[in-house]
Specification:
The complex is a heterodimer of chains A (about 280) and B (about 250). Chain A has about 280 residues and is an alpha+beta fold. Chain A contains eight helices and 13 strands. Chain A has helices at about 15, 25-30, 100-120, 125-140, 140-145, 190-200, 205-225, 255-270, and strands at about 50, 55-60, 60-65, 70-75, 75-80, 85-90, 90-100, 150-160, 165-170, 175-180, 180-185, 240-245, 245-250. In chain A, the strands form two sheets. In chain A, strands 1, 4, 5, 6, 7, 8, 9 and 10 form an eight-stranded antiparallel sheet that branches. In chain A, α3 (about 100-120) packs across α4 (about 125-140) and α6 runs antiparallel to α7 (about 205-225). Chain B has six helices and ten strands, in the order αββββααββββααββα. In chain B, the strands form two sheets. In chain B, strands 8-1-2-9-10 form a five-stranded antiparallel sheet. The chains are: A alpha+beta (about 280), B alpha+beta (about 250). Chains A and B meet through α2 and α3 of A and β3, α2 and α3 of B. Chain A: It comes from Streptomyces venezuelae. Chain A: Its EC number is 3.4.25.1.
Chain lengths: ~280, ~250
């Protein structure tokens, strides 16, 4: 309001006009300049920090979403303790790989979109509805993605209707697909996916699932230079979040450092990690 | 062209105020009280879906008496204001004081513009602080004035009587159950002083609970939790609070 010099202090008419429950719709009608998708980009290629690997795993009773902490700009490490996993609302979380600045902005908008709907309607969106909303937002970013500023999230949440944790992955065009069991995106995702493929089973416990994602992130960091492994010296550990019927929970530093420590210690004697049976 | 009758500004405003007050008085009153862990909103509301109380932002709640479509409009305006402000600046920059100010400006402009019908609403905007001292409660009557309230506040048709009842009995550091009981007691008194029973399923109760671990402190209290609180209360009151019920009322 204060940002608007024409403001008289009274709520502008747009605020009091009945309309959609979407914050994005309101923003694009009232202050389109605040939307990332309405921004004009100059010609040329822009080099901005990129977030790298994120992984998700379902387990019996919920879903785990985790990310490494490194952001890179070309071959430089731009940030060592970046946060890439965020609560979207009480029962879902979103993690991002891609252009860091845009991705964080998109997450902020997405959180607000869900919260706004909830407050206006007095009811929460279905998990499917939330996943579709995110899809629309990525589609709106396609112009920037074409210029190299892509954002590719993973979305995970507890589906109250179905009584299970679910994972949705996206491509830059907003294409959405539900993943069974486990998923990864970002530059280290090929290695993380390989790792999870061998370790995953549908009857994991919560503790096994959180260990699994740390193993997968370790493997991604092992083979992808843009992904950061656990940094024992600086005490920077993967961000691990768990969503169950109880809602969203981020592992405390003590919990994630313990996970990282046990995985790293085993790797000292077995650098390639746990072995799967040949048959 | 015929000359319109002259109406003095005083008379015009008095008429508008009376019109708004009558509209508000048709609805049921509601109360907002501070308790030790936050702020509780209590009202009689037969509807499960059309709420009188709602969340505006992390620590800010909204309560309204009067005409539903008008306060719903203001509520959504407030949610849009808060979300836009939080998005533009930071979540901490959304305050009840700021929100109360835009509501006051909005209501005031509508009230004094001759072309518009005054809104038949009375609002409460409350923000829960980290400590009880940080709690803020603002009452916004139909004409756009702001009243900074402490402890307890009632709005709606019967508000004056309920307020004086609450003023005598509300104290700092009440538990949620005590505050809820007091609120229900206040709401059950009719204008002629007789009491009637409000069943739990006709109550709408919500809190801004500062002890909630989430960033968003607003929570509705429904079903079993509500009846448990109401009952816990009756048991405790039978022993301790009985004498205070004897306080004669003005």
């Amino acid at each position: 309001m204060e940002a608007n010099p024409r403001s008289t202090g009274r709520l502008p008419a747009a605020f009091l006009t009945p309309g959609s429950s979407s914050f994005l719709d309101f923003l694009s009608a009232h202050s389109p300049e605040l939307l990332p998708s309405h921004r004009k980009l100059p010609e040329g290629v822009l080099d901005a920090p990129h977030g790298t690997t994120i992984v998700a795993v379902t387990f019996d009773g919920g879903v785990v979403l985790a990310g490494d902490r490194r952001a890179t700009m070309g071959n430089m490490i731009a940030q060592r303790d970046m946060e890439k996993v965020f609560p979207a609302d009480e029962y879902s979380a979103v993690a991002i790989a891609g252009t860091a600045g845009l991705a964080v902005e998109m997450v902020k908008l997405f959180q607000l979109e869900l919260e706004h709907f909830e407050k206006v309607e007095g009811a929460t969106l279905s998990l499917e509805g939330k996943a579709n909303r995110l899809s629309t937002m990525i589609r709106g970013n396609l112009g920037m993605a074409m210029q190299g500023l892509a954002v590719v999230p993973l979305f995970a949440g507890w589906d109250e209707g179905k009584g299970k944790g679910r994972i949705f992955s996206y491509d830059v065009t907003g294409g959405r697909s539900e993943e069974q069991g486990y998923a990864a995106t970002g530059s280290g995702s090929i290695f993380a996916r390989g790792s999870m493929k061998k370790l995953y089973s549908p009857d994991l416990t919560e503790h096994q699932a959180t260990t699994l994602v740390v193993q997968a992130l370790y493997d991604a960091a092992d083979d992808d230079s843009a992904t950061g492994g656990p940094d024992m010296a600086r005490r920077i550990f993967p961000l691990v979040t768990v969503i169950t019927e109880e809602g969203f929970r981020r592992l405390t530093e003590a919990e994630s450092s313990e996970l990282a420590r046990s995985v790293t210690e085993r790797r000292l004697t077995q650098p390639d990690g746990p072995r799967a049976a040949l048959l | 062209m015929s000359t319109p009758f002259y109406v003095s500004p005083q008379q015009a405003m008095a008429d508008r105020a009376e019109y708004a007050r009558k509209g508000i008085a048709r609805g049921r009153s509601l109360v907002v009280l501070q308790y030790t862990d936050g702020i509780v909103f209590v009202g009689e509301n037969p509807s499960r879906a059309l709420h009188k109380f709602s969340e505006i932002y992390d620590r800010i709640g909204f309560a309204a008496a009067g005409k539903y479509n008008e306060y719903e409009n203001l509520r959504i305006g407030g949610v849009r204001y808060a979300d836009l402000r939080g998005y533009t600046y930071d979540r901490d920059d959304v305050t009840a004081r700021g929100l109360a100010n835009v509501y006051a400006q909005t209501l005031g402009t509508i009230f004094s513009s001759a072309g518009e019908k005054p809104y038949e609403v009375e609002l409460v905007v409350a923000e829960v602080g980290a400590e009880p001292e940080g709690d803020q409660i603002y009452r916004l009557p139909h004409d756009g004035s702001i009243v900074d309230e402490h402890g307890s506040v009632a709005v709606g048709g019967n508000a004056e009587q309920i307020s004086s009842f609450l003023d005598q009995r509300h104290r700092d550091g009440m538990s949620l159950a005590e505050a809820l009981k007091l609120a229900v007691q206040a709401l059950s008194r009719d204008t002629n002083g007789s009491e009637r029973e409000i069943p739990a399923e006709r109550l709408e109760v919500a809190v801004l609970d500062r002890t909630r671990p989430q960033q968003r402190k607003f929570k509705r209290i429904v079903g079993r939790q509500l009846s448990r609180l109401l009952q816990a209360d009756n048991a405790a009151v039978a022993k301790t609070d009985e004498p205070s019920d004897e306080v004669p009322e003005e």
